[in-house]
Design goal:
The chain has 13 helices and no strands. The chain is mainly α and 256 residues long. It folds into three domains: 49 residues, no CATH class; 101 residues, no CATH class; 99 residues, Alpha Horseshoe (Leucine-rich Repeat Variant). The termini are far apart.
Amino acid sequence: MNCEDIKRNLVEYWRGTLDEADRVGMEAHLSSCSQCRAEAEGLKHIWSTLGEFPEAEPGLGMRTRFYAGLREWERREIERRHRFWWIRHPAFQAAAAVLILVAGLLIGNMTATDHGQVAQLRNEVSSMKQLVTLSLLQQQNASDRLRGVTWSYRVEQSDSEVLGALLTTINHDPTVNVRLAAVDAMKNFADSPVARKGLVQSLNKQSSPMVQIAILDEIVELREKSAGPSIQGLMTSSNVNPSVKEHANWALRQLQ
């Protein structure tokens, strides 16, 4: 592998999704090229620390410092984009945006008493989490969409946009594992009538037995008795897997 190959495969390398031959070739190159090794370690740091930052109470003047820092970061990125094209990868952009936001919070004055400004900045953090989640859920790479499902646990339960994106993922994502993860993530919206209704409606839209069973389990856990007719429809359908019908019968008994 040469340096361009390394840059092109850095994200997949730290995800652990490279095949064995490419991984071995990459590690051989990194052991001999200090520049590529430094870039690789920098990206590793982002993946390993994302989401592990402590909660911080920003202070007065943080907003100004944050946006000044953001503008400076954007200026530097424009200068660097021709040399480091891989930095435009969607997952890296999402991670970088969050890191910059949290960095701005951490450099704020921790003794501030302006609660109104703190509340406003917290709303901006919430908006950034929503942006990262929605962006990742729309990516072509299944690994990125799985990461988006994971990020959905960080948003507020009242976030209707993320809830809608999760329901769309359950109904239309081409990858079974992503749909299964999205079904599990609906627990974060367990108190939402929209989430419960959407989950019930998704039941008869599925073709994967694994996803159908996962939705049935979620419905039982939520004690969503309104799902009765949909479950009965699943049991009488000629296109449903026998194991799913058996599980549907079990779920119906649990809800009675």
